[in-house]
Specification:
2 copies of one chain form a homodimer. Helix content of chain A is 35%, strand content 15%. Chain A contains 7 helices and 6 strands. A two-stranded antiparallel ribbon of chain A has the order 1-2. In chain A, strands 3-4 form a two-stranded antiparallel ribbon. In chain A, strand 3 and strand 4 form a beta hairpin. The C terminus of chain A is likely disordered. Chains A and B meet through helix 1, helix 2, helix 3, helix 6 and strand 3 of A and helix 1, helix 2, helix 3, helix 6 and strand 3 of B. The structure holds a DNA duplex. Chains A, B: Pfam families: HxlR. Chains A, B: Keywords: DNA-binding, Transcription, Transcription regulation.
DNA sequence: CCGGTCAAGTTCCCTCAAGGAACCTAGCAT
DNA sequence: ATGCTAGGTTCCTTGAGGGAACTTGACCGG
């Protein structure tokens, strides 16, 4: 979709947004997760062009996020259902819903409510730390390159600035990943 | 960006993805949140066209997600920093990172690690229920229309199918929202 | 047997936005 | 006065998205 294949960049956000960072995909996933899996229903509900819908769906199937399943044999009819991988995207959707509700809810209140069926209550999804279970906020989290990080592809080059700004907690990435963008002019300058 | 202004649809995901559902925006936010706020650095790090970067940044500023701030007067230099609204998007980014790490990490391990500075440990962000504090999964959450929901704009029409599939927990949305897409052929058929 | 319909796509054409790269403008710096 | 750097704008071309019609395969009614 993008000229420079974002997916080639070894950054999790890039990988995820290459798939998900498209106006329609999130909406499609919302609908499919809610059980709306048929082509025509999706097209109608979203007002999306059928061509684009077909492209998105087959992409999502290729990525293993959706599964195309025959729900009826005679006449043969297919529907799309989320795979496990797809279901795990719900955290992203919930975060998106929550943010949208918080910042764009009108006078009437939020357009969407999330219910946690397990406990039976409406809920506000909270992102928490797997270790201490406290809520995570932007101010107390730091994203660092992990063992699989690569340099030079235009991602994670920002780490240098990070460690320059904050206390030098543990600036050593995996072998020398913390290289500044400005240290590596793009070969032509 | 999209022909049919998604933002006009009273769905939180639509509102959020109209802004965020673009391949670059998430990446820009990642960088800005990490402290990389200068135009040239962003352009270089992302490999994005300067034109598009300028457009995205001014959109993000208009939306109140970023603030354009002068960090030096002589010569005048500006940088972009996340506002509170912008910082709250970190939950979405964390969810995206987590998902990307889980499903696209190579042999070497995840390209990105998230550290929770408050507790000092690397963390896996977990989406939890604000009420019972248990993790939320796709299978035990239901998205229902809330008080601010509207009908007919091609969103949340899926509720009918939901209540048809599952146990009839509480199928009554706010006044008659639960209308099926197929009950309302789009005026021409 | 023939036309109609429905689901699930495809195909075609056209426009508009993204990409790329060059150009511009303010303030220094030399 | 010339150059450099940060922070954009402008111009041109390509290609993805929108819209809508067409296709395919199977059932349905007469």
């Amino acid at each position: 979709m993008t000229r420079v294949r974002l997916a080639d960049v070894a950054c999790s956000i890039a990988r995820a947004t290459d798939l998900f960072g498209d106006a329609w995909t999130a909406l499609i996933m919302r609908d499919v997760m809610a059980g709306l899996g048929r082509f025509d229903d999706l097209a109608r509900d979203l007002g999306i062009s059928r061509k684009v819908l077909a492209a998105r769906l087959s992409r999502l199937v290729d990525e293993g996020v959706l599964e195309r399943r025959r729900y009826q044999d005679r006449p043969p009819r297919e529907e799309y259902v989320p795979t496990r991988k797809g279901k795990e995207l719900s955290a992203v959707l919930l975060a998106l819903i929550d943010w949208g509700d918080r910042w764009y809810a009108g006078e009437d209140g939020p357009p969407a409510l999330v219910r946690h069926d397990a406990c039976g209550h409406d809920t506000t999804p909270v992102m928490t730390c797997s270790h201490c279970r406290e809520p995570l906020t932007a101010d107390d989290t730091t994203v660092r390159p992990g063992p699989g990080a690569r340099v030079g592809t235009g991602t994670l080059l920002l780490v240098d600035r990070l460690s320059a700004d904050g206390p030098p907690g543990d600036p050593s990435g995996p072998e020398g990943v913390a290289r500044s963008a400005r240290d590596a002019p793009s070969s032509s300058a």
